[in-house]
Design brief:
By secondary structure, the protein is mainly β. The radius of gyration is 13 Å and the shape is globular. The chain starts with a strand and ends with a strand.
Length: 121
């Protein structure tokens, strides 16, 4: 069965960095685009970033552009989110999601359980 397991969340200070990982199994990882999304307390789900199945193209929400970098290692079946220059408003539960195509469509069929990121001094 498909499994997506996020890790790497935690507490960071404003201006700090964290690197999230999402380990995938149960499907042909290199055939599907992947995305990260987040949900802050009391708010709706926000798409953050997406990457093509072969890593050739990436997309970012305006709120994280220039600060976050998505990448993937198809040999390790893992997608990453490098988060720099963190802000308190980045505090959220971060999810990785499997797309239904090789390109980023934001049409997801599987989600991980999430990893908490808290940015506070």
């Amino acid at each position: 069965q498909v499994q997506l397991v996020e890790s790497g969340g935690g507490l960071a200070q404003p201006g700090g960095s964290l690197r999230l990982s999402c380990a995938a199994s149960g499907f042909t990882f290199s055939s599907y685009a992947m995305s990260w999304a987040r949900q802050a307390p009391g708010k709706g789900l926000e798409w953050v970033s997406g990457i093509y199945s072969d890593g050739s193209d990436t997309y970012y929400a305006d709120s994280v552009k220039g600060r976050f970098t998505i990448s993937r290692d198809n040999a390790k079946n893992t997608v990453y989110l490098q988060m720099n220059s963190l802000k308190p408003e980045d505090t959220a539960l971060y999810y990785c999601a499997k797309d239904t195509a090789q390109v980023v469509t934001t049409g997801y069929d599987y989600w991980g359980q999430g990893t908490q990121v808290t940015v506070s001094s």
